[in-house]
Write a structure and sequence with these properties.
By secondary structure, the chain is of the alpha/beta class. The chain folds into 2 domains: about 130 residues, Response regulator (Rossmann fold, 3-Layer(aba) Sandwich); about 90 residues, OB fold (Dihydrolipoamide Acetyltransferase, E2P), CATH 2.40.50.1020. Helix content is about 30%, strand content about 30%. The strands form 4 sheets. It has a 5-stranded parallel beta sheet, with helices on both faces. Strand 14 and strand 15 form a beta hairpin. Helix 2 packs parallel to helix 3. The longest helix has 16 residues. The protein starts with 5 loop residues before the first strand and ends in a 5-residue tail after the last helix.
């Protein structure tokens, strides 16, 4: 089983902390801790083991989050996402100097949060500082899983199928012929994790499995085949799968 990506939350409003926690849990991220002041954030930076930080710009009655961001960049070398209710031109300039990996505005919705984390990990690996214009953009056709101390990038074009387990889904990557695990439900993956522009390519073939249609090589009765694996095609999903594949029956 691959490790989950771990998140530290720095936010001083309880309602936003709870909303972030619920969304992160839905997507299978591990929440290692929270901090609500500059002092507690500095302690958390040293004491917790985390992969990424969700960092509110406005802390302790001022934009102290910006200075915390600079510390994360210069000392801890960790990706972080700036979160705020609004940006004015002065704040934007100061925030950019901290070199964030992504931005989010409140209220944070579930899909935007997942996209921002994936974009942040992508930007961090290529040493790119995010800009406001990139905020909430669904620009990636890939996602990251944690593999040891590294992040493994998987292109959705190479994903043959998704298979639901008890508390996770397995994602088969054709490029290296390996399965990777993300702690999420199949429905969350279909509606939020797979990029919107690619969702039409992924079809549920039974209650527990989803196949990317370009990898389908044959349908034989109630069996749908790819070169890597065959799947049971349930009656309730058969008509829509055949329609997508332009099969007349």
């Amino acid at each position: 089983m691959h490790e989950n990506i771990s998140v530290l939350i720095v936010e001083d409003e309880d309602i936003w902390v709870r909303n972030l926690q619920l969304s992160l849990e839905d997507f299978g991220f591990d929440i290692v801790g929270t901090a609500n002041t500059v002092a507690s954030a500095l302690t958390a930076f040293k004491e917790y083991h985390y992969d990424i930080v969700l960092l509110d710009i406005h802390l302790d009655g001022k934009n102290s989050g910006i200075e915390l961001g600079k510390i994360l960049t210069s000392i801890y070398k960790k990706p972080f996402i700036f979160i705020t209710a609004s940006f004015d031109s002065h704040t934007m300039q100061d925030a950019a100097a901290a070199k964030p990996s992504a931005y989010l505005t409140k209220p944070v919705n579930t899909s935007s949060l997942f996209i921002a984390i994936q974009n942040a990990l992508h930007n961090f690996t290529i040493h790119h500082t995010a800009t406001i214009t990139e905020m909430n953009e669904n620009i990636l056709t890939s996602f990251f899983v944690k593999n040891g101390n590294k992040y493994k990038k998987i292109d959705w074009n190479d994903v043959v199928y998704l298979s639901a387990g008890k508390n996770y889904i397995s994602v088969f990557n054709a490029k290296d012929k390996a399965e990777y695990h993300i702690r999420s439900s199949l429905q969350n993956a279909l509606h939020y994790i797979i990029p919107v522009r690619m969702q039409h390519l992924f079809m549920q073939v039974n209650r527990a499995e989803v196949v990317q249609l370009p990898f389908v090589t044959e349908i034989n009765g109630d069996e749908i085949r790819t070169q890597y694996k065959s799947f049971n095609l349930s009656e309730g999903f058969s008509r829509e799968v055949k329609r997508k594949l332009n099969i007349l029956s």
